[in-house]
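Data card: per-record layout.
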Amino acid sequence: MIDLASLTINQIRFSLLKKEFTATDLAKAYLARIKQIDPKIKAFITITETEALLQAQAIDDKITKGQKLGNLAGSCMAVKDIYLTKDIQTTAGSQLLKDYIPQYSSTIYQRLLNQDAIILGKTNTDTFAFGASTENSGFFTTKNPWNTAMVPGGSSGGSAAAQIGDLCTFALGTDTGGSIRQPASLCGVTGLKPTYGRNSRYGITAMASSFDAPGAFASNCQDLATVLSQTAGFDPFDATSSQIEVPNYANLLNKVSLKGLKIGLPKQYFEGVEPDVKARTEESIKIFEKQGAQIIPISLPNTNLGIDVYYVLVPCEISANMARYDGLRFGQSVKDSDNLVDLYFKTRGKFMEPELKRRILIGTYFLSSGYYDAYYLQASKVRTLIKQEFQQEFKKVDLMLAPVSPTTAWPIGQKVNDPLQMYLADVLTVPINVAGLPALSLPCGLDSKGLPVGLQLIGNYFTEDKLLSVGHQFQQITDFHLKKPKL
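The structure for this 487-residue chain is written out next.
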């Protein structure tokens, strides 16, 4: 019997080479657990059993023939359903694309396949990644494995739930305003939002093109480092991807010494958070202090404008990106329209989910004549101020530490009909996306209700190696990341 909960990426590859089990054995074990557990939490929209077993057999054949294995050989991934996967249904969590089969794959997914990773399925997401709880999915609501009456966070809630439920080795997500870090925090897993441009966005359905940051969930920082080493790097198909050299992150996990490390605590990020969240975060700060880190109070006053800037600029970009889903170029269309305009109205009215329509309408309003200068232009200027403010504070510290979410997971249905409350769930994560910085979410304990609390480490541009190194050392000292729900 394979103990899926204890397996890391390196252990899987090593075990395959030692022939302790086969890739097919492992894929079958994960698929069996998905069939057992997923009906309770509904993490997957599509389960790719046929593809998984074919990919696993190809790895086993490589071993038999003595061929070189990829760095992720045998590791089984869950893929957020906004990544295009050739010949595998990609819905973006919307009824609009429920019958869409891509003819090509996203760059990140293909790079992982090239390293012998195995796809187990496509995970649930808020429609086109618009949401903070996975309740806006066009299919169903994913449930938090720690308490199935609670949300898992969003929009990558399906991937986070699959990760903590031991339904995969690692999972892919995207982070536009906190959609990796927030579900990682609410589900008690490790999640990384890289610097904007570190990972290619090619082949991922766009939400807000200047904010979207593809990343991953894993059980620990070591696995995240291994995955990022494969996914990061310039992509000629994505003009916004960075040409900065990609280090081997897994070899740099002990690079940074905690002794003397300057950790900034932005006071605004500790205001208005639940007592349990604040307490767990402060306990983690003491752990870093015991290791010799210097804790330095800092201030980011424009952080309070981050949520306002985000919810002006992002709907504007959504409005532009969603124009293609008119039922002619992309998406389903009605069959009983009288003319072209009627076709557009009926198609969007029938197949687009409420949150999708809401954000298109808000963005179109902000971009309309007479309002562009008042909203979009002003928000763009404040975005620059927020970036400059972060850069000013990074002159004083090596990284910043804060809670990920002001609360732990909340009950399903509590906020779904109150968009403003839902938007405020991202108040501690969106400023990092506004600035395009990297940030890491680490489990740091449980609240009084037994729900996970997440700790956020924020770095300067392209310092993922530093974040992963500090996070890895934190996980060597603590066991928060090893805690699992009973399923």
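Known properties of this structure: The longest helix spans residues 372-393. The chain is about 40% helix and 15% strand.

See the next section for split statistics.
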